[in-house]
Amino acid sequence: MAKHRSKATYPLTSVGMGFVFVSALVMVTAVDPYSGAFASASSMQSFESEEMEYQQLTIQSIPGDGFGRGEFELVDGATALRLVVRNAPTPDPDSAKGFALGETKARGWEYTQFSCLVKLWERESNWRLTATNKSSGAYGIPQSLPASKMASAGADWRTNAETQIKWGLGYIEGRYGSPCAALAHSDSHNWY
Fold first, then answer.
1. Where are the domains of the chain?
2. pLDDT tens digit sequence for 80-90
3. Whole-structure pTM value
């Protein structure tokens, strides 16, 4: 008498779902999220797409208890994003953050946008001029990938915080429209 083996079916358990999730995360991480990025510190350079849709965020102060003084919230109703951002302290005018504040004001952005920029770049590089991501090679204060993209803002991009900041703000403005929109994207996708 021959033994008959039946095919067993296994339900997708939480372990199986976890494996699928981690596998997808690894695949997304393996694909360079910056390869399709286009940006330049030069406002004269045109972008691949003239009609970009920016994420519509509302910036609102937070009344009541439970939040620190000077915080605001980024709200995007389409994705149910709620991100609390603390107003950045006024930086030393001679620091990299002081330069960045001047550049954000020159673009017509409010102080809340500077606060988002501070939080974003603290997350990315902690405002370190030579910060290098060991796995991707992203470099500098804005974590440019590839790092050489910053050469469009100046030949001294490796050693000059101002050059890196100009490039980074041009990238943010061209790709996301504002630092708060870039921060919201970073919060949702873990990259910007």
1. 92-189
2. 567 788 899 99
3. 0.63
